[in-house]
């Protein structure tokens, strides 16, 4: 015949999933704590031992129905008073919880079914819960050592089980690092191809495009009179100034500044050898000049050969750093000698002009 304790335990088991070993264990623990509280309140150790003996028999009888023999469960000791590793442990090992757990001493009604408090009812999965321990019960399980020693039907998961999240975090971190490494390696391999696709083609050492064009045009009959370096081929008067500079593109240039008097000119000299090659011809002249960024200059040009201008008085406006100006020069009927291309930079706003070059060539078919 079942004891009163066994009847009470079966009643609590019927309130939840009695097939769940964790749930049954919670009921057994709650019963053990209730016995501890009654013993503390009544001060009757003999009665507590008798009830624990009944509890052990009730646990053995109930577990036998689920095909689990609690007499042969090997355990590891959690304190010096427990059996050594490899020894068998019965349900009596579980009911000693109250003696080890300082929290079991809570005064309650001596009747077992009433002595299991509302907290224990929640713990065992009654109407207020489904077998999930609250925070305090989880700490009690950790302190008691039952989670790693015995459970109905097998080993119970509890405080001594290793948490999987730590290892999972390490594995996830390693995978992320591997992905980042592969992306960096792929980008490093593709970088030369991408830079080659969007970068302008590299030029080898040699003349620039401007120099190549100038050389080709020189071969077409151009005669260089001034290339930005022959300061001795410049004549200034009436207080004018000539200063050698380097343009933004690296070209050698001169900056000419007119004198204080209006109409003061600075001349580029055309030597007798050049004049002898061009005399009697219709000549095309190209003067390349410029000004500072965001500035504009007006200037005039006269072509003085045999004491008179052979191109009239040309007037130009420049608003860029470098710009060529082409005009015609009539050298027919001259008798050798030299000549000058006279420039007046004082027209309009400003009194200076940047001169890059001057070159001449005969006009074919003229």
Characterization of this structure:
- Residues 65-74, 98-109 have a biased composition (Basic and acidic residues).
- With 366 residues, the protein is of the alpha+beta class.
- It has two domains: 4-148, no CATH class; 221-362, Sandwich (Jelly Rolls).
- 35% of the residues lie in helices and 23% in strands.
- The protein has ten helices and 13 strands.
- Strands 3, 5, 6, 8, 11 and 13 form a six-stranded antiparallel β-sheet that branches. A five-stranded antiparallel β-sheet has the order 4-7-12-9-10. Strands 1-2 form a two-stranded antiparallel ribbon.
- Strand 5 and strand 6 (252-257) form a beta hairpin.
- Helix 1 crosses helix 2 (21-42).
- The N and C termini lie far apart (141 Å).
Provide key terms for this protein.
five-stranded antiparallel sheet, 366 residues, alpha+beta, 13 strands, Jelly Rolls, six-stranded antiparallel sheet, 10 helices, 2 domains
User: Any idea how many domains?
Assistant: 2
Rg computed from alpha carbons, rounded to a whole number of angstroms: 55 Å
Which H/E pattern describes the elements? Answer: HHHEEHHHHHHEEEEEHEEEEEE
What structural class results from the helix and strand content?
alpha+beta
Low-confidence stretches: 72-111, 122-150, 154-163
Shape: rod-shaped
Strand content: 15-25%
Major β-sheet profile? 6 strands, antiparallel
Mean model confidence by pLDDT? 74
Keywords: Membrane, Transmembrane, Transmembrane helix
Transmembrane segments: 165-191
Biased composition (Basic and acidic residues): 65-74, 98-109
Region (Disordered): 65-163
């Amino acid at each position: 015949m079942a004891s009163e304790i066994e009847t009470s335990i079966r009643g609590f088991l019927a309130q939840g999933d009695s097939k769940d070993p964790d749930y049954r264990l919670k009921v057994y623990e709650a019963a053990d704590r209730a016995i501890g509280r009654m013993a503390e309140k009544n001060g009757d150790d003999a009665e507590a031992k008798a009830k624990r003996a009944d509890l052990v028999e009730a646990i053995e009888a109930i577990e036998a129905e689920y095909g689990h023999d609690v007499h042969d469960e090997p355990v590891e000791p959690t304190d010096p008073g427990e059996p050594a590793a490899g020894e068998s442990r019965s349900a009596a090992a579980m009911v000693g919880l109250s003696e080890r757990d300082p929290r079991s001493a809570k005064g309650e009604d001596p009747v077992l079914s009433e002595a299991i408090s509302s907290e224990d009812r929640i713990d065992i999965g009654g109407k207020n819960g489904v077998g999930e321990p609250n925070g305090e019960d989880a700490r009690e399980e950790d302190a008691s050592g039952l989670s790693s020693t015995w459970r109905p039907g097998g080993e119970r998961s509890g405080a001594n089980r290793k948490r999987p999240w730590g290892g999972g975090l390490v594995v996830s971190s390693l995978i992320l690092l591997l992905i980042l490494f592969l992306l960096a390696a792929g980008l490093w391999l593709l970088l030369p191809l991408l830079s080659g696709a969007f970068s302008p083609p590299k030029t080898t050492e040699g003349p620039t495009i401007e120099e190549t064009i100038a050389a080709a045009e020189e071969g077409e009959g151009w005669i260089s009179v001034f290339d930005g370096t022959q300061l001795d081929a410049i004549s200034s008067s009436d207080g004018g100034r000539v200063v050698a500079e380097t343009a933004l593109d690296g070209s050698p240039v001169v900056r000419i500044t007119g004198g204080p008097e209006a109409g003061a000119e600075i001349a580029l000299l055309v030597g007798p050898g050049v004049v002898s090659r061009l005399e009697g011809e219709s000549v095309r002249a190209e003067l390349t000049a410029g000004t500072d960024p965001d500035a504009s200059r007006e200037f005039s040009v006269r072509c003085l050969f045999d004491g008179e201008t052979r191109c009239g008085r040309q007037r130009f406006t420049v608003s860029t750093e470098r710009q060529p100006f082409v005009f015609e020069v009539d050298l027919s009927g001259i008798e050798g000698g030299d000549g000058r291309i006279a420039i007046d930079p004082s027209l309009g706003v400003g009194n200076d002009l940047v001169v890059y070059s001057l070159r001449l060539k005969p006009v074919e078919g003229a």
